[in-house]
């Protein structure tokens, strides 16, 4: 797989994900799903491939927080995009070398995070997907439009049985960074969410740690 010196484009929803992905030969784009397609269209660079990278929700009940999920395809609204099998194999190998549990399978893509465990269970039953995220279908469509290899490398931050606080949706601003005003307003409106935050934060830290360990082994351009 020859990259010809062009950078790989890494797409996610959070600035924290982009910081982990950053490195030689990498362009990172972090934005919420509502803004992501427009930002991709405005991209001036010509990448050699596209990787959807960051956190995801677990749909398969066997996945604990911190497991790596490597996509075989992205599913959204009746459409399907196939992931590059060579990149997927490289990611699985890197996870094994890093001592990180990993699973390979299809990703379901949603317009917003699934907060309720029952909704994740229903999506798993309907699609057979192992994980869910909100950016992979946008990244996949961009890759297909430009005839670029596409891959998904994400870590589970909320297992299938976990219920997320509504704050998980409203905390991220249009630049992929935390919106502290929105966070304060949400907590004032629904203070009971505070009870869920410690567990959610711990699961997110486990996922971020797994991403860092695997990313370090992938090197420039994620090996593309």
Automatic annotation (TrEMBL):
Record-linked Pfam families: PNP_UDP_1
Assigned GO CC terms: cytosol
Cited InterPro entries: Nucleoside_phosphorylase_d (IPR000845), Nucleoside_phosphorylase_sf (IPR035994)
GO biological process: L-methionine salvage from S-adenosylmethionine; nucleoside metabolic process
MF annotations from Gene Ontology: adenosylhomocysteine nucleosidase activity; methylthioadenosine nucleosidase activity
Record Gene3D superfamilies: Nucleoside phosphorylase domain
Protein name: Phosphorylase
Nucleoside phosphorylase domain span: 47-161
């Amino acid at each position: 797989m020859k990259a010809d010196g062009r950078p790989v484009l890494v797409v996610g929803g959070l600035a924290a994900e982009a910081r982990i992905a950053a490195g030689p030969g990498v362009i990172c784009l972090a934005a919420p799903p509502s803004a992501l397609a427009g930002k991709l269209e405005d991209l001036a660079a010509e990448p050699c491939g596209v990787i959807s990278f960051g956190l995801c929700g677990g749909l398969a009940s066997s996945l604990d927080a911190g497991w790596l999920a490597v996509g075989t395809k992205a599913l959204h609204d009746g459409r399907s995009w196939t992931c590059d099998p060579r990149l997927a194999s490289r990611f699985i190998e890197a996870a094994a070398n890093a001592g990180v549990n990993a699973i390979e399978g299809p990703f379901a893509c949603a317009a917003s995070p699934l907060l309720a465990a029952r909704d994740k269970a229903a999506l798993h039953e309907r699609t057979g997907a192992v994980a869910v995220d909100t950016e992979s279908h946008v990244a996949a469509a961009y890759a297909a439009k430009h005839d670029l290899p596409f891959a998904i490398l994400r870590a589970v931050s909320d297992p299938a049985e976990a219920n997320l606080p509504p704050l998980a949706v409203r905390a991220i601003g249009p630049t992929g960074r935390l919106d502290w005003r929105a966070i304060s307003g949400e907590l004032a409106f629904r203070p009971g969410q505070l009870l869920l935050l410690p567990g959610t934060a711990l699961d997110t830290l486990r996922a971020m740690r797994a991403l860092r360990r695997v990313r370090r082994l992938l090197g420039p351009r994620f090996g593309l």
